[in-house]
Structures are given as structure tokens and as C-alpha cells.
Write a structure and sequence with these properties.
By secondary structure, the chain is mainly alpha-helical. Helices cover 57% and strands 3% of the residues. It has 13 helices and 2 strands. The protein has a two-stranded antiparallel sheet.
Length: 281
């Protein structure tokens, strides 16, 4: 699943000729407005208000115009942006949807031009950003944090993946431990930390179809991440990635094994103790 096209600077598409807001007031550009409306309805699980739609459309046009794009190019970019709604509608709680949501947030979160936009506010509304590593330009949302605790419990267990809810205090304790780990470490947040929600959704969804060997690999990866070699197909299955992106993600782990390094090890610091305390022995 290529990430090109998620950022506000996405490109290409097919045009639609006209859109009017429900109250009858024309928006700045009906093509851009339609694509903003459709994408955010899928992303947020609700319809935009008239004021939100107007603001998002204006922001999108200004963002692209500041790069010298023509109105035609801006419309084409909005079509590509809006088309990303499809996996969100197809399976909102599946690994692909979690992966896409995370990518779109992360791509825009570190863009200085988006910081004060309604776009970023709405992108982070359903699942707020809780842990940020600006050195690596990686982040974790609250769903990633919750998933990481469940993944550790799954890795230590022998049964099927079972999602457990965390209390607000448990979430906050884990966020504190994660932020301390990121803040006190001189390297980068592990890639897997930002993929935790997608991976956890994928493991739960795929588990009934996995054979015995695949289940062993899934649990081993949950415990040791990049240190465990799994075939590219399992990246597609568990992360919700297309073939090309799954192969690329496989290559990331190959590189990590060759380098033999990672920044924040789940076996180091206070983080494992906090996660273990959540569910008990």
C-alpha cells in the first residue's frame, strides 16, 4: 500500500463537475469539496458540518496553491486524496484501515504547513497522537498504545489473541513509560510501535485462518519483532499491506537484522514492567 497520495500534496485522479453544500451555499471548489467530504466521512465515521467542509476545502486549496499548483492540479490531487476512503469503508476495524489511518496522520503530523489546519485536528480526533519521536518522525496513537500492551500479553500467552480493554489510568501510565523511553533514548522509535494497532487487528482477524506454523511465527514476531524472520506474505496478511508494500516492509526487517540494532527494546527500561502490570501474571 503506497503512502503516496495520503499527504495533502497527493496527486492525480478524475474530476467531478459540481457540488453544493446542503444549505445551498457554494463552496470554494466543488470538486475539492466533494473529495474532502467523502474522505473525512470515512475517516471520522460521520458527516462534516458545513463549516468544517468549507474550511477544509479552503485549507486544501491554499496548501497546494502555495506550492504553485494550478487549480486543475489541485482538483486532481483531491481526487487521489478522496479515493483513499475505499479501504476505510470496506473494513473500518481491519489492519489495512488502521495502517492507512496511521500513515495519513504521521505524514501530516510532522509537516509544519499543516500544524494549524483543521485537517490535522480532524485527522487526530478519532485516535489522538500520544507518543512522538521527532528524531525518527514516528508516532504512536492511543490505539497503538493499547495494542502494544495487548501484543505483549499475547506474546507471553499460549492461547489465541484476545483483546483486553485498558482503563484510562493504565493507558496514561503506559503513555508516560513510552514517552520516557523515547525521551531518554538517543535513537529512533521502533517502526513496529507505530504499527501496533494494525498488527494487532491483523493477528486477531487472521488467526482462525493461520496454520500452526504461521501461528507460531505470529506469536514469535509479537515477542521479538524484527528479530524473527517471517515471509512477505505474512506482512500482507497481518499488517493489511498490498504485495509491493509487504515486500518493502519485509526488507525493512531484513535491514534491521543485518544492522542488528534498534532504538527502544521492549526488554529495556520501565516499559515492560508497566505493560506486565496491566494484565497481571
Amino acid at each position: 500500500m503506497p503512502v503516496r497520495g495520503w499527504k495533502l500534496i497527493a496527486a492525480s485522479g478524475v474530476l467531478v463537475s459540481f457540488l453544493v453544500v446542503a444549505c445551498g451555499t457554494a463552496v470554494a471548489d466543488p470538486v475539492v469539496a466533494r473529495n474532502m467530504s467523502e474522505f473525512y466521512a470515512a475517516f471520522l465515521g460521520r458527516q462534516l458540518s458545513r463549516e468544517e467542509l468549507r474550511t477544509l476545502t479552503d485549507e486544501y486549496i491554499r496548501y497546494h496553491a502555495s506550492d504553485g499548483k494550478s487549480r486543475e492540479a489541485i482538483r486532481e490531487a483531491s481526487v487521489r486524496f478522496g479515493a483513499r476512503k475505499k479501504p476505510l469503508l470496506r473494513d473500518p476495524t481491519g489492519p489495512t484501515a488502521y495502517a492507512m489511518r496511521h500513515w495519513v496522520i504521521q505524514l501530516n503530523y510532522f509537516d509544519p504547513k499543516v500544524q494549524d489546519m483543521l485537517h490535522l485536528k480532524l485527522m487526530t480526533q478519532p485516535d489522538p497522537v500520544r507518543v512522538v519521536d521527532r528524531r525518527s518522525r514516528r508516532l504512536m496513537t492511543e490505539q497503538d498504545v493499547i495494542a502494544l500492551a495487548n501484543i505483549r500479553q499475547f506474546a507471553k500467552s499460549e492461547g489465541p489473541p484476545r483483546h483486553r480493554k485498558l482503563s484510562r489510568q493504565q493507558i496514561e501510565d503506559l503513555v508516560t513509560a513510552l514517552n520516557d523511553a523515547v525521551g531518554s533514548n538517543s535513537g529512533k522509535m521502533p517502526q513496529f510501535f507505530g504499527e501496533a494497532a494494525a498488527f494487532w487487528a491483523g493477528v486477531q482477524k487472521a488467526w482462525p485462518q493461520l496454520d500452526a506454523q504461521q501461528r507460531l511465527l505470529a506469536r514469535a514476531y509479537a515477542d521479538r519483532t524484527w528479530r524473527i524472520q517471517i515471509p512477505p506474505r505474512m506482512y500482507g496478511l497481518l499488517w493489511g499491506l498490498d504485495g509491493r508494500t509487504a515486500t518493502s516492509r519485509y526488507a525493512d526487517d531484513v535491514s534491521a537484522r543485518i544492522d542488528g540494532i534498534t532504538t527502544i527494546n521492549m526488554q529495556l527500561g520501565n516499559l515492560p514492567r508497566v505493560m506486565d502490570a496491566i494484565f497481571g501474571p
